[in-house]
Amino acid sequence: MGVRLMVVDDHRLLAEALASALKLRGHRVLAAAAPAAGAADLVISRAPEVCLLGTAAPAEPGTFDPVVKIKRERPQVAVVVLGPVPSPRGIAAAFAAGASGYVRHDERIEGVERAIMKARAGEAAVAPQLLQGAFGELLNPADQPDDEGQRLLRMLTPREVEVLARVAEGEDTRLIAARMGIAPSTARTHVQRVLMKLGVGSRLEAAALAARTGLLDRAGHQG
Fold it and tell me: DSSP alpha helices (H): ranges in 25-79?
């Protein structure tokens, strides 16, 4: 039997794609909205069984305030966080706020669905490898790899970063060309170069990678 759920993410393209995929698997998706100030209120008013809440910065203070508010007003709603590879602080903060699970942004739809079903059943929905990775980082902080978002950002030109940002917003090639004042063929070339440099095969994968690594947020801070 399908789950009544909401998808809430600040990357509209990801939210809509995930909502569509879950609808195709028989679930009743109530809405796909951006987590602005009213996101928690929207979830509270619609009262789904499960809310998928996306975040690009799980370790930032206040990130999980919407979870706290949802659980206070609608304790029966299970919240599953969608985010980048979590730090120990990030994963701890999610569960401390009342989340029932944590799933990586680039998880396959089957994994997301498993997390939804576990959360609805009242179980903790987090992959063992995520917990192992988080505790591994906690125990061996000196062995952390280079920041992935920073590494990817160094590979892109400023114009390619702008193209990636527009791809993440769901703009097609024609719209990208019009808004950047370039020819559609040039825009297409930029998109292809971005996909090649990021090592992904589609615009959706590029948007997911940017969201998971916080690449675009870092670019904004540098600009």
Answer: 39-46, 65-73
For residue 15, is pLDDT > 50? yes
Tokens encoding 127: 């992959």
pLDDT in tens, 49-84: 999 998 877 777 788 889 999 999 999 999 999 888
Q: Which residues contact 101 (CB under 8 A, 6 or more apart)?
A: 78, 79, 80, 81, 115, 118, 119, 124, 125, 126
Q: Name the residue ranges covered by the structural domains of the chain.
A: 4-139, 146-221
Let me know: does 99 contact 144? Beta carbons within 8 Å. no
Topology adopted by domain 4-139? Rossmann fold (3.40.50)
- Map 147-173 to HEC letters: CHHHHHHHHCCHHHHHHHHHHHCCCCH
The position carrying tokens 């996909």 is 195
Separation between Cα atoms, residue 134 and residue 25, nearest integer Å: 31
Task: Take residue 181 and report the two structure tokens written for it.
Answer: 């004042």
Residue 33 pairs with which residues in a beta bridge? 8
Radius of gyration in angstroms for the set of CA atoms belonging to the chain, rounded to a whole number: 18
Q: Does the domain made of 146-221 have the CATH classification 3.30.160.70? A: no
Task: Specify the residue for token string 């669905």.
Answer: 113
Which tokens belong to 160? 């390619």
d(CA 25, CA 97): 29
d(CA 142, CA 154): 23
Q: pLDDT per residue over 160-195, tens digit each?
A: 999 999 998 889 999 999 999 999 999 999 999 999
Q: How confident is the model at residue 211 (pLDDT cuts 50, 70, 90)?
A: confident
